[in-house]
């Protein structure tokens, strides 16, 4: 629902507008009241205000200055100005600040309702446009290359989504590959001639390489491309023809698919060398069905580049040429995103538990069931545990105590179940410790804020000032304080001010305006209004009642 704020230094004007109009009937969900521009800004910081109705003439900061501040931070908030004067300079300034309406007092409720109803319609239309399917589609279309590249990186990295989610992502990104299509994966490594360029120029050259690949391959193939975290360029190819037609060489000669691709890859290397003055190596695989083995092939290619090719350059190779047997396979579940360390760092404890279950489920499969894999799992998991402990400023010995000796003795873990039980136990200890530390930190924040308020009640205790004292963003501080205390910061400040005012009325002879100044409400009229709002009588009536 739309939220509205009424601002005026005259109590009766605010209450009249806020309380006598049926706001719900025109789409207003909640109406806030502020009796000064400063108080209005505090409310704006804590909540999502869509419409502000403000008087012009107010002490300290007038209505035009308030709207100017609103325009800086909340440009979509609509403003309606109320004034007793039709002065040209006021109207001109209001137009400059893009105020929605300028109304002269006294104003009829029906007139205000009509204007607000119109603004509610504008706001709803604007946000419907922003969140509309057409707008989202347009944004996706404008960022398709980036979206496609990130999607391919997710797939080769082993990201796990249900099949229907993948299909939807492929559809949104307009990727020319569907489940079951034949694909060929190949990687390009840029070598001599490219490393000497500065990052800005290198980026342009990489884009030029992609254009060369696209130009040479696009006649026969759909091409999908991304750049991985190791600066390799990863390409997926899929025939544009059906499976019978794709066997034909475009010139009419019948050749194998491999021979055709050999010719095209050779042309790519040649064009890169001639026009970009650089060398490139290409490693390609045979044909598969999308998306089967996509991540496994990519990881195998990384192994080949690292173990077999190394610093050799200017090669065109096929993955089939490197079929060396490996007695031990690395455990994919350890490295599929999101990694365990990422989940721990972001406090996603439930997902971290699921991740551990996936790891131990995979290590029990026959092809991964080995002592080497058990040790790999041990070091991977406990590296993540130790890393998060150190990030939280904790010593391993303090956290684990006598269990530390068992932790550093790999021989202690003789079987998967033993390692699994210990891993889950330490994960739960980390979770409980982290949540306790979070609770302690938040309690300390609340304590520091309340202490500052009590010590500086007569000074500036705005949300911005308080946030600066505890080094937090104002919106985050407001949220934390409300979560921990169940009360908003502004409400707490107001309550403390009134409680201190009551004590001074009981035990001192200070004048009313002096008490107001000592509790941070230097505007005596506003202090009296607030006191009467909370206690049902003015400060003087309260003092007289005590004496009576």
Task: Note the topology.
Elements: E1 2-7, H1 11-20, E2 28-34, H2 37-46, E3 51-55, H3 63-73, E4 78-83, H4 88-96, E5 101-104, H5 109-130, H6 133-142, H7 144-156, H8 163-172, E6 182-190, H9 199-217, E7 221-227, E8 233-239, H10 257-276, E9 280-289, H11 294-309, E10 316-318, H12 332-335, H13 340-345, H14 349-363, H15 371-391, H16 396-400, H17 404-407, H18 416-455, H19 463-470, H20 474-485, H21 489-507, H22 512-518, H23 524-535, H24 539-547
Parallel strand pairs: 1-2, 1-3, 3-4, 4-5, 9-10
Antiparallel strand pairs: 6-8, 6-9, 7-8
Question: What can you see in these coordinates?
Answer:
The model has no long low-confidence stretch (mean pLDDT 84). This protein has a 5-stranded parallel beta sheet, sandwiched between helices. The protein has a 5-stranded mixed beta sheet with strand order 7-8-6-9-10, sandwiched between helices. Helix 9 packs antiparallel against helix 10 (257-276) and helix 18 (416-455) packs across helix 19. The chain has 24 helices and 10 strands. It has 4 domains: 2-131, Rossmann fold; 143-321, Alpha-Beta Plaits; 332-438; 459-472 and 486-547, Orthogonal Bundle (Arc Repressor Mutant, subunit A), CATH 1.10.10. Helix 3 links the parallel strand 3 and strand 4. 25% of the residues are buried. It has helices at 11-20, 37-46, 63-73, 88-96, 109-130, 133-142, 144-156, 163-172, 199-217, 257-276, 294-309, 332-335, 340-345, 349-363, 371-391, 396-400, 404-407, 416-455, 463-470, 474-485, 489-507, 512-518, 524-535, 539-547; strands spanning 2-7, 28-34, 51-55, 78-83, 101-104, 182-190, 221-227, 233-239, 280-289, 316-318. It has 548 residues and is of the alpha/beta class.
